[in-house]
Amino acid sequence: MTASAAPSGARHILCMKWGDKYGPEYVNRLYAMVRRHLRGDFKFVCLTDSSEGIRGEVTCLPIPDLSLPDGLPERGWKKLTTFEADLHGLRGTALFLDIDIVIVDDITPFFEMPGEFLIIHDWKRPWRVTGNSSVYRFRLGAHADVLAGFRADPARARAEFRNEQAWLSDVLHRQGKLAYWPAAWCASFKYHCIPPWPSNWWRAPRFPAGTRIVVFHGEVNPPDALSGERHRRWRHIEPSPWVAAHWRE
Q: Residue 155 in 3-state DSSP?
């Protein structure tokens, strides 16, 4: 596939859930949002350590082993296993979605946009090449070197890169394969939806025009946004009723 060609073939939505930070309702609601906002056929796959409570339309498969030492801070390194040369025999194009996002508009263009590897351009430090891996698309099996390089020397990778998205962005940037979604498509709830102080005390968060996916990172997740809870001192948000309209089964 060239950088100018859009991917073709079977379409997969990939997500990942491990541990008990998020319940199965996150996967179930993500599936429902995809079903409402993706035109055409797709397969929905959750890489997970437990399929309990996950709806039947979702194919649950084990997370490939990364052999990380116990007790490490959670920085998303397990996501690198999506780049297995043979990920449970899956073939085609995969759109990876974090399970705590909220889809608010058609995501079909995420499969149609030309490019070999597409990811969100990180909002906090846009002068860097680093992407935000809440939403990325790739050809299954095409970037096995991203995972192989990490497995060859995981201690060095973790010492030089803060998290998995910094590692994979660096590898693919050096190969000339890294590209970004249009800026309007993926909005940060933290940076783009919360009104500036002091209006955040009386104005509800809202997503900008052109948004297709709202990404939740940091201390606020969709249930918090819905109820107006923020888990940082002196930070405040009003309830976001639009979350209920989208984040549902």
A: helix
